[in-house]
Amino acid sequence: MRKRIFMLFILILLVACSDDRVTPNERFDSFVSDWNEQKYEKLYDMFTSEAKSTFSAEESVLRNEKLYNDLNVTDLKVTFSPIKDDDLDAAMDKGVAKIPFRVEMNTIGGPIQFNYKATLKLEGEGENRNWFVDWDPGFIFPDLKNGGEIKYTTTEPKRGEILDRNQMPLALNDDIYEVSVIPDKLGESADQAKKDIAKLLGVSVESIDGKLNQSWVQPEWAVPIAKITKDNEKVKNQLLQISGVQINTVNGRVYPGGESTAHLTGYLRTVRAEDFEEFDESKYAADDMIGARGLERLYEEQLKGEPGATIYIEKENNEKVVLAEKEVENGKNLTLTLDINLQEELYDSYGEDAGTAAAIDPKTGETLALVSSPSFDPNKVMYGTTEGYMEALDKDEQLPLINRIVSTFAPGSAFKPITAAIGLENGVIKPNEGFEINGLQWGKESWGDYKVTRVSTSNGPVDLKDALVRSDNIYFAMQALEMGKDKFTKGLHNFGIGEDFPLTYPVTASTISKSGEIDNEVMLADSSYGQGQIQMTAIHLATAYTTFLNDGNMLKPTFFSDEETGQFWKKGLITKEQVSTIQDALRAVVTDGTAKEANNDKVTISGKTGTAELKHTQEEKGAENQWFVAYPTDSQDILIAMMVENSHESKTESPVKKVSNLLINMKR
Questions:
Q1: What percent of the chain has pLDDT over 70?
Q2: Fewest beta carbons within 10 Å, which of 146, 216, 382, 640?
């Protein structure tokens, strides 16, 4: 008897072990997993035979894939509630199971969530017997179950504009001309017509052919070839004389400041794959525009805005079922502290010269102008009719594509007031103490053949004022050696050299040297008069001079109009009495010293000149960059730091003359 019971137990156990069929929970878990991973080709294999006979792969899973792509579906999450044990036994017996599931996703129209119920059926024989999903269009969206078509509309945001302090546009959305060609209407002289069009637009015939040969083009359709600005009226009229040319007015990005603001604003170009390393790909279509450089690039996300979209199902009776809807968010305007009139005047003063300049309000810290010369015209980059415009700029020896606003340069003797302030603060420099200096050169025996050279000899002891007025390199070298590298370096740090500059338009940090330290006495001596390896941006140099107009406190510069003004970056760099000493010397530089060219009877000017010689050895004759940092002595309402590169080759005026003329014009 026991043997019979034991054998029965073994038989039951074997039958139980052999019932290894997949449960509907396990099968649907595989289906959901492939769905979440969007492995559409696997989903169709799990459809019931009835579903497959009703819906082809193109009508079901491939349709699903296309819709997800069109709607920019992201963050897809499909979850389900497994059947409980009691219901599972019944489902296994009947060969039919119903499993509720939930779908969540983000789309171009915003988030979409829905609940639905899947029916699974047992099908097949023997080893092929399994659970299959009785799919219907409700799996895509429930309102599609009984028919309908998914549609969506998008509303592109209006790109934010870039404005100056007086709401004058630096980058705006304006009408431009779009030039199109209708292939069918080019006529028998199509080849010649394309040559004429190419010449007028500054493009190649090959580029025109490339656009006319796109797969979507029909002979009778107008194919966009290029865009030109409204001021190209002559070109527009010439183009309209060619058979097959059509010109429409469309909206485009225009830069009224042209070359004067190009390095600040930047421009737009068609989006590229590499842009998606930085920006969200889902927010761009294949032919969308994106910021290429300057503020257009730096503030792309704020300027672009968020597109609006409505996703809906259109029924046969024209009923619309809205699934998701997102309002368009236009891009935000950027309002700068810059004054476009001053910007253009400062840029124009360079003429054919290269260089950079910064102008700030020395009482508020507002940046009034930032110039890089030479430059380029962003309108020509985007809509130009000159063939090879960018290639010519790239080959130009004066490097117009380089943004000198953000670049650092040796400040030369324009740095001496900073050294003076450092020495006054640490007590080494005593304003009225004179140094006996003989001849034009001086150096320590340990330096070997290296000598510090000054531009003129003195008639007696050289004190601080005399050293600034005549720009005496030897005086400042001696004082720096007296301070020692530790005190001098501490003073440089106090003026923000060696740390990030706090301007919301990012510029390169000014540096003490390549290593960040002063390595020897020669470097210490040279650094005192703005040579050595000292490097500063024009805006930092201008900001440093605000110390002398704010009782020894250095302002924090601002760039956007909504920033708080009148804030200090560095406080207590020197005393009010020391400020008075330096102010007196800066005025004397113009009346009696190296900036006499700025002395006039129309506006009283104070400032400091500087010449930075770019050379590798003392014997070498290098190119010279000339600086002038100046402000109106009485009103103190603007401070300008200007540098002209290779000044001995200047085709116009010295920076002293440029700045003084500008200040005179401002006072008229």
A1: 95
A2: 216
Cα–Cα distance between 101 and 83 in angstroms, integer? 11
- CB count in 10 Å sphere of residue 402: 16
Q: What is the pLDDT of residue 459?
A: 83
pLDDT digits (tens, 9 = 90+) for 64-73: 999 999 998 9
Find the helix or strand (DSSP H, E) in which 460 lies: none
Query: For residue 246, how many other CB atoms are within 10 A of its CB?
Result: 16
CA atoms within 13 A on the CB side of 231: 8
Separation between Cα atoms, residue 410 and residue 624, nearest integer Å: 10
Residue 111 phi/psi, 5-degree rounding, is -75, 145
User: How many Cβ atoms are within 10 Å of 619's Cβ, its own excluded?
Assistant: 7
| Catalytic residue chosen out of the listed positions 260, 372, 413, 458 | 413
pTM for this structure?
0.84
Does residue 266 come out as left (phi exceeding 0), alpha (psi in the -120 to 50 range) or beta? left
Per-residue model confidence (pLDDT) at position 668: 67
Residues 609, 492: contact at Cβ < 8 Å?
A: no
CB atoms under 10 Å from CB of 81, counted, come to 12
For tokens 């590499």, what's the residue? Answer: 274
pLDDT at 20 over 70: no
Cβ atoms of residues 273 and 279 within 8 Å: no
Q: What gap in Å lies between CA 13 and CA 414, rounded to an integer?
A: 97
Is the Cα dihedral 226, 230, 235, 236 positive or negative? Answer: positive
- Cβ atoms of residues 593 and 425 within 8 Å: no
Average pLDDT for residues 446-451, to the nearest whole number? Answer: 92
The answer to whether 178 touches 205, Cβ cutoff 8 Å, is no
Q: What is the pLDDT of residue 8?
A: 40
Q: Please report which confidence band the pLDDT of residue 615 belongs to, taking 50, 70 and 90 as the band edges.
A: low
To the query of whether residue 53 is one of the catalytic residues in this protein, the response is no
Instruction: Return the H-helix or E-strand segment holding 333.
Output: none
For 464: left if phi > 0, alpha if psi spans -120 to 50, otherwise beta; the answer is alpha
pLDDT-wise least confident of 2-6, 82-86, 187-191, 648-652: 2-6
pLDDT score, position 621: 60
Q: What is the per-residue pLDDT across 160-186, written as a single tens digit (0 to 9) for each?
A: 999 999 999 999 999 999 999 999 998
Query: Which residues in 124-190 belong to E strands, given as ranges?
Result: 130-133, 149-155, 162-163, 169-181
Structure confidence at residue 22 (pLDDT): 86
638 and 343 in contact (C-beta within 8 Å)?
no
Q: Where are the alpha helices (DSSP H) in 57-136?
A: 61-70, 85-94
Tell me the H-state helices in 618-654. Answer: none
Residues 6+ apart with CB under 8 A from 242: 193, 196, 197
